[in-house]
Amino acid sequence: MKKDLIRDLAWGGGILVLALCASYARSQGVIDHDTTTRIVIGATGLMVAAFGNRMPKRFAPSERARKAQRVGGWSLAISGLIYAGLWAFAPLPVALWVGCGAIIAGMAVTVGYCLWLRGRPVEA
Q1: What pTM did the predictor assign?
Q2: For residue 114, what pLDDT is reported?
């Protein structure tokens, strides 16, 4: 538990440092505003993908919880990578709408699968 908290705080601190460095580079004229935005938001997508990758590796008390964690992990990892990739390469309006749609779709797949599992009878 403590190890996960330290890792999560490190991700948050890393994104803050990245944002500050990108902002400083923009103020020095090294990069422009769009590049700063793409760097910081792309890192956020990579963070979502990393959390999705770690999700199935956590302890789950039942088989259903493990199944839900696997599907949730896959959907968040894939949607986070799509989000980061769009912010790296797509035009800004496309990155915004399609990237947010990918994250929402990943969450919808996870919630939908959990609801589907909940409606199924318990296997012995």
Answers
A1: 0.87
A2: 92
